[in-house]
C-alpha cells in the first residue's frame, strides 16, 4: 500500500466532492453565513479533511457522511424557500436592537447580543455616535443593519433637486494586453475605434495596455503597464 | 448543450469517485479467477493440516504474490490497519510454517481469512 498515492487519490476525491456539493448547495453557503451555516461548513470541511488523510478509516463512510450532510442542507434550503414559518424557525428572524434611538435591552438579551457587540458593529459601519442611530437590526447572520436618523442621513441628489446620471456598469475591453472581442460587441464599439482611441492617448500597441474599460456613456478608462506614479 | 455538460460532468465525477472507493469491495466479494486469495488460504491450510510443510511454504509464496497483486485493487477501499493486519499475518505465517508449528499456522490462517473478510466492511 502506497500511502502517498492513497492520500493523493483520497484528497482529490474529497476536494472535488466538496466543490461539487458546495456548488449544488448554492451561494448561500458562502454569502449569507448564519451561525448554523458556519457550524455546517466546519463539519463538512472536517469530514472532507478526515476523508483525505485519515487512512486508519475507509474513505467510503466519510464520503457517505459528506453526501448525507449535503443532502440535509439541500432539504433544509428547499424547506426554508417554500415554507416561510419553517424559515423563521430554522434560520431565525432579524431582531431590532435599537428602535427610534432607544436601545432594546430585552431583545438584545434574548439573542445574547451585548451592547459592546452592537457598538462594535456600528463603529464598523463608521457610526461612532449612538445619537445618530434611528434603527439597528441584528440580521440572522449576526450582522447589524443600521438606519440613521433623517437628520444624519447623507443628502442625495434628489434632496438637492439635482438630476443624477446613471453611470451603469463598465465593460472591460482590454485586459492584460488582450482585446476582449465579445465585450467590444456588447459595448457596440469595434476594434478600429478602440485603436483610434488608444492612438489619441499616445498608445501604439494594445499590448501596452493593462486594462481598458468603457462605461455606458462611452467614456474610456485606460491603464497602461507603464506607471508614472513612483 | 453547455447546461447538459454542466450536469453530466459532476455526476460522472461522483460516479468515478464511488467506483474508486467501492471498486475494492467488488473485487473482494467477486468469485472471479483473479481473486485467488481465499483459494490460497484454503490450499495452505490443507497443506499444514496434512503436514506438507514444503508445499505449504511454496503455496504461501503464491499467497504472498496474490496479496501483493491485490493491494493496488483494495488500497483505496480498505483501512490501512486492515491491510497492515494481513501483512503481519503473512509474516507470522511464514515463521510458523518454517517452525512447522501447526497450531500457530492455523491460528494465523484463520486470522488472515478473517482480515480478508473484514476488508468487505
Q: Main β-sheet of chain A: number of strands, strand sense, barrel status?
A: 4 strands, antiparallel
Q: Which structural class matches the secondary elements of chain A?
A: alpha+beta
Note the main sheet of chain B: none
Domain tally of chain A: 3
What's the number of domains of chain B?
1
3D structure, described in words:
The complex is a heterodimer of chains A (230) and B (121). By secondary structure, chain A is α+β, with helices and mostly antiparallel strands. Chain A has three domains: 3-88; 95-152, CRO Repressor; 171-224, CRO Repressor (2-Layer Sandwich). Chain A has nine helices and eight strands. Chain A has helices spanning 3-25, 28-31, 35-53, 59-82, 84-91, 105-110, 115-124, 181-186, 191-200, and strands spanning 95-99, 102-103, 133-138, 144-148, 171-175, 178-179, 209-214, 220-224. In chain A, the strands form two sheets. In chain A, strands 2-1-3-4 form a four-stranded antiparallel β-sheet. In chain A, β5 and β6 form a beta hairpin. In chain A, α1 (3-25) runs antiparallel to α3, α1 runs parallel beside α4 and α4 crosses α5 (84-91). The model of chain A has no long low-confidence stretch (mean pLDDT 85). Chain B has helices at residues 2-29, 37-49, 53-74, 80-98, 102-118. Chain B has a single domain (2-118), classed as Up-down Bundle (Four Helix Bundle (Hemerythrin (Met), subunit A)). Chain B contains five helices and no strands. The longest helix of chain B has 28 residues, at 2-29. Chain B has 121 residues and is mainly α.
Based on the model shown, name its key terms:
heterodimer, A: 230 residues, alpha+beta, CRO Repressor, four-stranded antiparallel β-sheet, B: 121 residues, Four Helix Bundle (Hemerythrin (Met), subunit A), 5 helices
Question: Which helices and strands appear, and what pairs or packs with what?
Answer:
The complex is a heterodimer of chains A (230) and B (121).
Chain A (H helix, E strand, L loop, with lengths): L2 H23 L2 H4 L3 H19 L5 H24 L1 H8 L3 E5 L2 E2 L1 H6 L4 H10 L8 E6 L5 E5 L22 E5 L2 E2 L1 H6 L4 H10 L8 E6 L5 E5 L6
Antiparallel strand pairs in A: 1-2, 1-3, 3-4, 5-6, 5-7, 7-8
Helix pairs in contact in A: 1-3, 1-4, 3-4, 4-5
Chain B lengths: L1 H28 L7 H13 L3 H22 L5 H19 L3 H17 L3
Helix pairs in contact in B: 2-3, 2-5, 3-4, 4-5
